[in-house]
Design a protein that fits this description.
This protein is α/β, with parallel strands linked by helices. The chain folds into two domains: 4-164, P-loop containing nucleotide triphosphate hydrolases (Rossmann fold, 3-Layer(aba) Sandwich), CATH 3.40.50; 209-327, Zinc Finger, Delta Prime, domain 3 (Up-down Bundle). It contains 16 helices and five strands. The longest helix is centred in the last third of the chain and has 21 residues, at 247-267. The structure holds zinc ion (ZN). Zinc ion (ZN) is lined by residues 53-56, 60-61, 64, 66-67.
Length: 331
């Protein structure tokens, strides 16, 4: 079951969408913009469900035929645009959207097309879609879900209402993990922190065995980093850099580690640490680094994340980052 009340955060967007439904001023094209796990799909689906609901306006009733069909993924007038290749090609848009959109809705007031990973549309695909969203039939609504809005043509952007999903308050995520997913307190705290305001990410971390393994991998290095030679560190992080999809997670974990170091340095209170078990080593790191040095380290990690996003050479980026941990040290 999916509706607006099940979504945590995004109050502004929900209000906007509900107002649009109530005022019957619905745009023909929306972009839900936010990183993976932020809730683009949940929002788009709740919106589509509310638009098609036969009983209620504003929030889906969850019991009419239309709502049931949406929940089971079989609503004839809510259509997910699929693609087989890595990108969404012009043919995908032509056959699934352009050729279909002039067929009236089967049963509902609207015909809703949801294009997930819309930023993967090729330029030709976007131009094909543009023709349709420039002059859509009255009942047609296109929902684009995109992580990277820069990949969309300005002409597309200008035709759509863009909804930017903002990071969700950590406390809300923590409560949500504990109440809905029965995650223990400390792990919920770490996962919420770790998630950067991304619920999907938080759930993934908190519920995966992987999390503990990753944490152990990277903490093992952090515990000994001051006594290791750079080549030893490089060897130690080989598994980490090989796992390209997870590299950001490791950097996030390291950032949380150094945030603990900063916290301990500033407050001397071990109870405020996320990683209380690591108190002894975190204390050592706090004693052997100045505030400036700790800030340099955290900045180097932020830079590493930005570089990875820009596809700069992974190994060199990580080496530079670890080098900064060593350089900013007065042991
Ligand atoms: Zn309903």
């Amino acid at each position: 079951m999916q509706d607006f009340t099940q979504i945590i955060g995004h109050e502004g967007i929900i209000k906007h969408l509900q107002n649009a439904i109530l005022a019957e001023k619905i745009s023909h094209a929306y972009i839900f913009h936010g990183e993976e796990g932020m809730g683009k799909k949940s929002l788009a689906l709740a919106f589509a469900k509310a638009l098609q609901c036969m009983d209620q306006r504003g929030n889906p009733c969850n019991s009419c035929k239309s709502c049931m069909q949406t929940d089971s993924g079989n609503h004839p007038d809510i259509l997910w645009v699929s693609h087989e290749k890595a990108s969404i090609g012009v043919d995908d848009i032509r056959t699934q959207v352009n050729a279909d959109i002039h067929v009236m809705p089967y049963q509902s007031p609207y015909k809703i097309y949801i294009i997930d990973s819309a930023d993967k549309m090729t330029e030709n695909a976007q131009n094909a879609l543009l023709k349709t969203i420039e002059e859509p039939p009255e009942y047609a609504i296109v929902l684009l879900l995109a992580c990277n809005i820069q990949s969309l043509l300005p002409t597309i952007l200008s035709r759509c209402v863009t909804l930017d999903l903002k990071p969700i308050d950590r406390k809300l995520i923590k409560e949500y993990l504990m109440s809905k997913h029965q995650i223990p307190d400390y792990l919920a705290e770490i996962a919420a922190d770790f998630s950067g305001g991304n619920v999907g990410k938080a759930i993934k971390y908190a519920s995966s065995d992987d999390f503990e393994t990753k944490k152990e991998d990277i903490f093992h290095i952090l515990r000994y980093i001051d006594d290791m030679e750079l080549h030893e560190i490089i060897a130690g992080i080989k598994t980490i850099t090989e796992d390209k999809n997870s590299i950001n997670d490791y950097i996030d974990l390291m950032m949380l580690w150094f945030r603990d170091v900063l916290m301990l340095k500033a407050t001397k209170d071990p109870n405020l640490l996320l990683f209380k078990d690591e108190f002894q080593i975190i204390k050592k790191h706090a004693n052997t680094r100045s505030y400036d040095e700790l800030e340099n380290i955290i900045r180097s990690m932020e830079e590493a994340k930005a570089k990875l996003k820009a596809n700069v050479n992974l190994d060199i980026t990580i080496e530079l980052m670890l080098l900064s941990i060593k350089e900013n040290y007065n042991g």
